[in-house]
Specification:
By secondary structure, the chain is of the alpha/beta class. It has a nine-stranded mixed sheet with strand order 4-3-2-7-10-11-1-12-13, with helices on both faces. Strands 5-6 form a two-stranded antiparallel sheet. A hairpin with a 5-residue loop joins strand 12 and strand 13. The longest helix is centred in the first third of the chain and has 19 residues. About 50% of the residues are buried.
């Protein structure tokens, strides 16, 4: 079956399922809950596993210290070979006036020079603020400068699609924005930072939460059957988010790649907008990989490679929320490797140690 046929089939089936699901979501979820009743969250999401204690194969992760449009483009070239057809760029475009999001001029230059026909993609939020409805979301996109140079496709503007979750223990399918299956390839461009519930927000969070639609998918992840909007936390939340991410990764196959920008790393997500805590972690650089686990693991490892005084706040946020379960569960689901070779793109792609990558980083200055 060609990719267009597969995409059309999933979209048609998903739209039909979603249309039936919206007025009777509780019934569908009850059936799902009955299927998944034996599920038990994993443990140790508050424990960092050092590289020497990991097992399995190694992936490649590229690194540059060059926090600029040029650095972004340099790494994009390393991981974009498999992009074909219509390319979506999954960004966190931020709440109004958010100070820490990836600089728009960087993205503008990248798109003009490397991705002139690509489209930035987003979904509406589960909380009621600047991106809760499509109308308010579009106003926020204008406020934050995105619409000055690109079109942003709000994926759940016209409903949802159900993507299968293979091997999950909480879900058999996940509701994502219905437009997602209009794309042949997905470039996941992530601002790596802390997160109020997830501990950290990397590529896994960017698509696990960021592709789930604002009403059904995000409710499945955050609320489950608890009756509370934010009733799921710690290891179970990490696992639900990761299963959602896996649905997206599996859908795109080898036509998905990842960049994490380790800059302005507040302990709070870009969802916090202007109320986000001022970063205390130094800016480190940019990472790129075709392996979602390897890039998020390397991002976390680089933070842990910093002196204790520089990593303290972000490390505490990761561990107190049990966010490291994101990494171990991606490993369990077969989403990638927690071991990797870090290649220094500033010096001929030679392997570099973590401690050398962060050597000389300067304290954060707002």
């Amino acid at each position: 079956m060609c990719s267009m046929s597969r995409r059309s089939f999933i979209k048609m089936a998903g739209l039909a399922a979603a249309a039936a699901a919206v007025p009777a979501l509780d019934g569908i979820k009850a059936a799902s809950a009955e299927q998944q009743a034996p599920a038990v969250p994993g443990t140790d999401g508050d424990k960092y596993v050092s590289y020497k204690n990991r097992q399995g194969g190694e992936s490649v992760v590229y690194f540059t210290r060059d926090l600029s449009a040029a650095g972004l483009m340099k790494l994009y070239d390393k991981i974009s070979a498999n992009f074909t057809g219509k390319v979506g760029i999954k960004l966190h475009t931020g709440e109004p006036e958010g100070p820490n999001i990836i600089p728009r001029p960087w993205v503008k230059e990248l798109m003009q020079k490397k991705l002139p026909n690509a489209t930035v993609v987003e979904t509406n939020t589960y909380y009621d603020y600047g991106r809760y409805t499509t109308e308010s979301h579009r106003k926020t996109l204008e406020t934050n400068g995105w619409t000055a140079f690109t079109t942003v496709d709000i994926l759940d503007e016209e409903g949802t699609v159900m993507l299968p979750v293979k091997g999950g223990k909480w879900f058999t399918e996940m509701a994502v924005g219905g437009h997602l299956t209009n794309y042949d390839s997905l470039f996941v461009l992530t601002h790596f930072k802390g997160h109020t519930m997830g501990g950290f927000g990397g590529s896994n969070k960017n698509i696990g939460i960021g592709c789930a639609d604002g009403r059904i998918g995000k409710k499945m992840i955050h609320s489950g059957e608890t009756g509370s909007q934010w009733g799921i936390d710690k290891e179970e939340f990490m696992e639900r988010m990761t299963e959602s991410s896996k649905a997206v990764v599996d859908y795109f196959g080898d036509r998905i790649s990842f960049i994490n920008v380790l800059r302005n790393m507040s302990v709070d997500c870009d969802c916090a907008g202007t109320s986000a805590a001022v970063p205390t972690t130094p800016n480190i650089g940019i990472l790129a990989s075709t392996d979602i686990l390897a890039i998020d693991q390397a991002s976390v490892d680089l933070v842990y490679a910093l002196p204790e005084k520089d990593r303290h706040d972000l490390q505490e946020r990761m561990e107190s929320r049990h966010g490291l379960r994101q990494l171990s569960y991606m490993k369990e689901l077969g989403m990638g490797n927690s071991r990797y070779v870090l290649l220094d793109a500033d010096n001929g792609n030679v392997p570099i140690k973590l401690e050398d990558a962060v050597k000389g980083v300067k304290p954060f200055k707002a």
